[in-house]
Design goal:
By secondary structure, the chain is an alpha+beta fold. It has five helices and 16 strands.
């Protein structure tokens, strides 16, 4: 498990273009924007700004040390959808990606849509129902490639689905991933590679999984303390702190039920 931004030798190339299939952004739709801003601000130290008018409603970008790390938008009052973090995958042609998704058993819910950031986006779902985004345009991350991830920043993305190998076929045909079995022999997990580097993973959770989904991992300095803090702020612990091959993790939910994972990367300097 590594940072989605890649290593330093990719920096100049990724300023111009992101390899299709690379996780390139994460965003959240919520019912109470101000309350959720308060939650993540106090949990991760995020501050916020509005990038301007938005076709899809009120929207802010979360920042750390002046760098954009995530987006949060507010749902219309009549929308009763549950909140969920959405992983965006880079594309050279959002329109072609949307057409392929539609013709391959997925669902296109929004777009292709031109945005204020001089790009095009698609909101879609794979055949198992996991929502994800497609982004064509300039990189939205403003992180230092190759640097140790700062606490509060997204560092990994994982698809949790019924059967990893079945859903891999959909994503590999869309973006050409190379898949390798993870080092965790107790789980049905595949790591997705692009240009020889790991960028995301797919974990099979079995037929009892109710809602396949993409999950975002956020780096923290102390997983146990961050999980306890999330509860203090009105969230909940879904899976308690535990050791994994990637490091210590805990899966938590924010006050509106959006699930994400806290991670202290293995080998992170203390």
């Amino acid at each position: 498990m590594t940072e989605v931004w890649g290593s330093s030798e990719h920096r100049e190339e990724e300023t111009r273009r992101q390899t299709p299939g690379t996780p390139c952004w994460t965003s959240l739709l919520v019912h109470d924007l101000e309350a959720i801003k308060e939650f993540y601000g106090r949990l991760f130290g995020w501050t916020y700004y509005s990038p301007g008018p938005r076709q899809l409603g009120p929207y802010v970008r979360a920042t750390l040390d002046g760098r954009d790390v995530a987006g949060i938008g507010e749902l219309p009052p009549d929308r009763q959808l549950g909140g969920a973090w959405t992983t965006y995958l880079a594309s050279d042609d959002a329109d072609a990606s949307a057409e392929w998704i539609h013709c391959s058993g997925g669902t296109v819910g929004v777009g292709p849509l031109a945005t204020e950031e001089a790009g095009r986006l698609v909101l879609a779902a794979d055949p198992a129902g996991a929502s994800f985004g497609v982004w064509q345009g300039r990189p939205l991350w403003s992180a230092d490639p190759g640097a140790v991830a700062a606490p509060g920043t997204p560092v990994w993305h994982e698809l949790v689905t019924h059967d990893a190998s079945v859903m891999l076929k959909f994503y590999r045909a869309l973006f050409g991933y190379e898949a390798k079995a993870s080092g965790d022999v107790e789980s049905d997990t595949l790591t997705l590679h692009l240009d020889g580097r790991p960028v995301a993973s797919v974990r099979g959770a079995g037929p009892t999984l109710r809602h396949p989904h993409w999950t975002t991992y956020f780096e923290v300095t102390d997983v146990d303390a961050a999980a306890a803090r999330a509860v203090e702020l009105g969230g909940a612990v879904v899976t308690g702190p535990r050791e994994t091959t990637a490091g210590r993790t805990a899966t938590v939910a924010d006050p509106e039920g959006a699930v994400f994972t806290l991670l202290r990367t293995a080998g992170r300097p203390t």
